[in-house]
Amino acid sequence: MDTRKRQKKEKRRRGNKLNTEKVGQSSALMTEKESCIIREKEHFVEEESGAIAWIKGHGSPKTYGIYIMVLLIISLVFSLIAQSMFPVQYNILYHHVSQQGGLANNPDGHMFWNIMMIVTGVLYIPYVLHFYHSGKHISPTLFKFANMSAILACIGLSFVGVFPEDLGITHQIPASFAFFGFLIAADLYWLKLSKFIKSQELWRKILFHGVYTLINCSFLMILIQETLNFTPLRPETITPWLNFQVWEWFMAIGIFSWLYGLILLFPLDKLLHFEE
After folding, report:
1. Distances (CA, A) of 88 to 83, 95, 103, 116, 248
2. Res 2: pLDDT
3. Is 269's pLDDT higher than 80?
4. Does the N-terminal or the C-terminal CB of the chain have fewer CB atoms within 10 Å?
């Protein structure tokens, strides 16, 4: 009887020990998972050494802020130079965006605009990668698709400079990639970041909703304009502000306002800690 009691006690002791070990292992796994999530969120914040890491979007947030402002200045300067060399007075009411780089439309200044598009299109990629890393913990799959769309748009932007508007459909294909790529990326990010912006300052809310309204309303107007081409209606005869060119410019302004405003709209320290 004593032997049986001792055996039962020994079994209970071993069972309790095994349970304790399992609970400990489970807690360790949970702790490890939580640590992985924290490390993943903080990984890109740490300034990694080397140019390759920076190109991948893993540099210091401040450097990307300065970087995008430099790109903005370069883009504006080269665009203004191209417009100043236009044979007639360049006017967004009557001239397409791409006419700045057209050989026939701008024989003297097209190279300035085309070179600017080729270079800056590629240079936007590290910036969009940085923003992707800053918020991918919110919705990994959706942010991945948005990031892919933005990268394709950057590549399309570069090829707009390679194939100027004189080449017709060869130019229109990369131009469509640029416009639609940024439009899709912006709207995909909007699906999640509209919740984030609710808790931010009033000026950020106004800028956020203003930019997205401009992008999507301009796109809607472009669709309407294209549809009306198959009818006798010509809204541009009412006012030049209903010209296709105007809304193409408004959409371009909206997209680049969104692109340049990402760091302003979504401060890194707050975005990192945002959870749905």
Report:
1. 9, 10, 14, 21, 20
2. 55
3. no
4. N
Amino acid identity of residue 104, one-letter, is A
Query: Strand locations in 183-255, DSSP E?
Result: none
Q: 2 in a domain, yes or no? A: no
Q: Which domain holds residue 236?
A: 58-272
185 φ, ψ to 5°? -60, -45
Neighbours of 60 (CB within 10 A): 16
If you ran DSSP here, which 8-state letter would residue 87 be given?
S
Asked whether residue 73 is assigned to any structural domain, the reply reads yes
166 lies in some domain: yes
Q: Whole-prediction pTM value?
A: 0.78
The answer for residues whose C-beta is within 8 angstroms of residue 21's C-beta and 6 or more apart is none
Mean pLDDT of 192-217: 88
- Interval 203-213 mean pLDDT: 89
pLDDT at 172: 93
Q: Quick count: other Cβ atoms within 10 Å of Cβ 80?
A: 15
Task: Give the whole-angstrom CA distance, residue 126 versus residue 235.
Answer: 41
Q: Domains in the chain: how many in total?
A: 1
- Give me the pLDDT at residue 36, please: 47
- The residue-averaged pLDDT of 232-239 equals 70
6 within a domain of the structure (yes/no): no
Cα dihedral 80, 125, 98, 172 in deg (nearest 10): 180
